[in-house]
Specification:
mainly alpha, single chain, two-stranded antiparallel sheet, about 75% helix, globular, Growth Hormone, Chain: A
Length: about 450
């Protein structure tokens, strides 16, 4: 098995393996796990990508002042993302260690979900520039809730599915997320375009109509928070319950010990460390594009909110097929080769974005992003799951390293994007610079070809 291949010196408790296998591949549990993606992807799509960035950028066409400093709103938005993920990077590994040591993984998942969803609902009070500090802070807090929950959510994958189903189950989660978020986004779009449906002004007065649309947009923030919370709570009823028989006292010390122990084990696994390093670099590019594509379209190409939502819908629809297509591709060509194919497409996206001038061309680029958006996230998660020693009880701590690097990658990527934009006055150079992250990640992945085993026990195809 994979754990023996990568860690031949590790002592595996056969009873532990037997206990872990008993409850694997339960359809009810797997669908419940995937429903959490249905729940929280609404935030990732509606708030992070589709509606909130356009709403935020529309507050002012010129520079704004916040806490004594002057920013353009596009750069401020990217800095807010960087700050939120920097906070998460500082605390999430410790929380993951505490969750493993105390047996309260589900409790942490529930806590971050509540923080994020309530912060999202509170965005209702973000009306204009007078509340810029409040709106930015709520966005950061909601982002912390969203991403903080993911490390605990991802850590359930090795506990609910056997290794041969990691790719398919991971793809199912992303597919559920895309479908659920599309449903909510379409509902929000209908409401924003037709505010009269919810009792808001529906006449021909331009100023009043614009205000009604903004109010409908703020209602969308509330709907996302409610959707996230309700479906998240449903998912929690299907996931494995917490094992509270673990450490009851000294959680903080136990958390530190858990992280140290996991890191000591991880350092003995060259393939895992190399993959994590590659993942850091290409995630800096992937996540920055996903976070700031809408801002790029609005600032560089003049997309309005309706057009941006159409772009995002295109992304989501294509991404559903992309996640499943690359899960199939991995079976034929191996995980590493499939990831390399996707990195090539991501580099093409950045080059094309640098030169794009027509909206129609941007729609085509968005289709390419959708093709690899779900695939690279799904396959990265399942590939890492295969590299984790299968007999470990510390899945959350192992995923905390994965999650930490993704958060740091977002910090580096979005900060670099914002800084280049601030210095050059345009986003095209920022987009082109992201190619560097994909190149480095690709070189590291290339060096892993033929170095790891797939679930059938044969060398990952060269």
């Amino acid at each position: 098995m994979l754990g023996n291949v990568l860690c031949p010196s590790m002592n595996i408790d056969e009873n532990l393996v037997d206990n872990q296998q008993r409850d694997l591949n339960n359809p009810k549990t797997i669908n419940g796990w995937a429903m959490f993606d249905w729940a929280n992807s609404a935030y990732a799509l509606v708030i992070t990508v589709a509606i909130f960035p356009a709403y935020y950028s529309s507050l002012s066409e010129g520079p704004v002042e916040l806490m004594g400093r002057t920013y353009n709103l596009a750069s401020l938005f990217s800095y807010a993302i960087s700050a939120a993920y920097l906070i998460l990077a500082a605390v999430s590994p410790l929380l993951s260690g505490i969750a493993d040591a105390s047996g309260r993984k589900l409790a942490f998942l529930r806590g971050f979900t509540i923080i994020g969803s309530l912060s999202c609902i509170s965005m209702w009070w973000f009306k204009d520039l007078d509340q810029l500090g409040l709106g930015t802070s709520l966005f950061m807090l909601a982002t912390i809730g969203f991403s903080g929950a993911l490390v605990f959510y991802n850590a359930f994958l090795p506990e609910i599915a056997s290794e041969d189903r990691y790719d398919a189950v991971s793809a199912r989660g992303f597919s559920f997320g895309y479908v659920g978020s599309i449903i909510l986004l379409v509902g929000c779009l209908v409401m924003i375009l037709n505010p009269g449906l919810v009792g808001l002004y529906a006449g021909e007065n331009g100023e009043k109509a614009a205000e009604a649309a903004r109010t409908a947009t703020r209602i969308s923030f509330v709907l996302v928070g409610i959707w996230w919370l309700v479906f998240g709570l449903f998912s929690f009823t299907r996931l494995p319950k917490d094992d509270k028989t673990k450490v009851e006292k000294g959680w903080l010390r136990a958390g530190y010990r858990e992280i140290r122990k996991t890191w000591k084990d991880a350092r003995t696994q060259p393939a895992l460390i190399r993959f994590l390093t590659s993942f850091f670099f290409y995630s800096a590019g992937v996540q920055t594009v996903l976070f700031l594509a809408s801002t790029f379209a609005e600032s560089e190409l003049g997309f309005d909110t309706t057009e941006l939502i159409k772009v995002v819908l295109l992304l989501q629809v294509v991404a559903i097929g992309g996640a499943w297509a690359f899960a199939k591709t991995s079976k034929k060509f191996g995980n590493i080769n499939s990831l390399l194919i996707m990195l090539g497409i991501w580099m093409a996206v950045c080059f094309l974005a640098y030169f794009v001038t027509e909206k129609s061309a941007f729609y085509a680029i968005s289709g390419l992003v959708g093709l690899v958006m779900g695939g690279i996230q799904s396959l990265s998660r399942s590939t890492y799951s295969k590299l984790i020693p299968e007999a470990t009880e510390d899945n959350t701590s192992y995923f905390s390293f994965y999650d930490l690097l993704e958060k740091l990658a977002i910090v580096v990527g979005t900060f670099s994007f914002g800084m280049i934009n601030q210095l050059t006055g345009g986003m095209r150079n920022s987009m082109l610079a992201l190619v560097v992250f994909f190149v480095i990640g690709g070189i590291l992945l290339w060096s892993m070809r033929g170095k790891i085993r797939n679930v059938e026990g044969v060398i990952d195809p060269v």
